[in-house]
């Protein structure tokens, strides 16, 4: 409950100074407003009428009553968040049409070496989370990873008064990273009372149970001059370690095994009934005269594996179409559906009003995250010597019979198997993060220049990142354990300990049986994972800032001129600590390196609002930013608003925005991970043949201290319609275009290989290392060992579209009805990496249309909300050419495929809240159902062609579709 105190009254009399300072931190604005209560950014005056205290939001650092920014702002109320009862705040924000491609615990479970697993990072316009600036009460927050991702779960959800979402450039007002926009979480700093909240969630399948407990308190003391708020949150979730859903079928996109240039066949096909042809749970021989022999379950009578013969369908790369495609179900779908999580969050703020116009404040937050997720049931290859005691005697006899008649050069002394390592637990991560933030400052107002608002602050943030991989092995240890032999006494031992070479001895080595299913012992697993890769990273952020603003610097012919100015100093630091073993050994995953470095930023800005004539204003901003890493850059914003008539307002902006390289972009020293790639086979002229093979390799991602800031030019044009003949109705339409250049990033391993082999890009060919340590300016028919993926300025991206929003609120019967429709239409999202042909993801991975429709009804303490959300049909790739026969020539910019359809989806959610009283204490019961219809995701050939993790991931785009199914949430809260 919010009680108006002396300071609030003063703030209201001075035009809401304190609230305006918070609201101004949103940045430049988006083209829609979304809130159950009707707070419209398009009409600040209308918004004020619906609140007990004025809340003015404009997306600018200058706020004055009646002013609307040249770009709109989306506001999510705390009431609506409470109604939907999300497990975390990002689950709610991610349903907004302008938010696309965000990371969460379900989508980044494979981010092992980057330590990003479990982070909830927001992404506006699908331009990347690093290009979305996330603020807490208008100020930056320390990131939760070296990659610059802010985990919004570190914010106190129970104290969030509203969330302000801005799309489009805002760097001139708020600095680097606000390329696609700003998301500002505004806290209820004046809360008084005590409230307790408990929520429980579970899916319709009875899995992913989670519990959330929140305790919040606030009090005013010393004649309301001292105000204290505090909150604590505990969240725990039991994850699901595999893609445990019936809809996850063996659907893949693969290279067509029957394709040849000019034969009329499509180059790629996707269909069901496809599986892996280069591995099996107990080992599949992949080459030589015994190719296709696989080892099955251990025979209890002999203690050795049974034999089987793999039935190949049409093979292509690592896949078989038909045949024994179901044999490899150990690896299929072995990625986590949902992570195991435990979060603890503590927050406190104290403010003391030393005079009616000056407040001192201090704020502290502490958050701990522990999470476990699984990347995949690890597929790998292994060489098995013929004298390995775990080989079935029947197989050894077959080999001996073959060798008896084979030429010496063709005789077999070892076999190569592909295996998903049944009996060895799936590899994953077990990350722990502690994020702390400390803030001190002062804010107030001076009775000069028509009222001068000011604030000054210093904050220090620190993130301790304990990165621990689970169930990943040292390659040297696994090789030694795999190479088992009998010693002179009939015991099975590791060969390295009896080969007469003391330099390669491995004390305590336990042999491991990788032949067949059921032979791996607990003793072998314990020894294999006795050592695991570990890294601790500490990310530090220090920020000192001040801001001044006035709504009446001086008067001109059309009214008062407003001005805001300020400055900021920021330092970002990254320190890493490794286990000494990391320097000497190679792991399957998690080859951590020391990523150390720091940079600082000094910047100053100025912003003004100049009235041009009655109903028209000019808004301009300019910022100069100096990076110790990349020099000085300039950003600016020009905006106009014009209230043509009472019912129609026009607005427009043009801005220049930037993002400089983050700590990982600059200082990554080469963290490596193991993967597989589909390598094209070349003919004698060095051209691709259409045939490919699967190579296991190590990819190395490195930073680049020399990268320049990326730049973006943004245009926004909009109209707002609020007809007087229909009170409570508002409509807006806003066109946006973002043109990003010198984008910071790196290619994927698959891109590097295709650019080298198909397009003969010399620079990318030289990033590939082959067997024997060789590198060439063009591709070779040799096994790929490593691929270097450096960060550099190489890409441009253009995003354009239109945002629509319509809302209506009216009394209906005994209660109130609120309707809202929000939609985003993407015209283009074109990326050009400078090496290949431009790609447009609008209508593909980024739906052409996405929307959210809401209907809420309030009556006598009961509130119900129905939400319809979704997106339209599209394609897998805009560059694909669909055909089955008589196909045209296939090329990298126009590949022929047999199917390119991606279905749209519509989800229905319902929420119910009932307010009542128990012994004089206000109480609230909540029930929410997400995906009421339990709609399964559309399954299609999603993912890379040759990656060894493709089969482990769900056969759908989980960034678009709901993969959990229907979920229920129950909650109860008390407040007094």
UniProtKB/TrEMBL annotation:
Membrane topology qualifier: Multi-pass membrane protein
Keyword terms, alphabetized: Cell outer membrane, Membrane, Signal, TonB box, Transmembrane, Transmembrane beta strand, Transport
InterPro entries listed in its UniProt record: Beta-barrel_TonB, Beta-barrel_TonB_sf, Plug_dom, Plug_dom_sf, TonB-dep_rcpt-like
Domain spans labelled TonB-dependent receptor-like beta-barrel: 455-917
Gene Ontology CC terms: cell outer membrane
Domain TonB-dependent receptor plug: 67-182
Compartments, record wording: Cell outer membrane
Signal sequence bounds: 1-41
Family: Belongs to the TonB-dependent receptor family.
Protein name: Vitamin B12 transporter BtuB
This protein's encoding gene: btuB_10
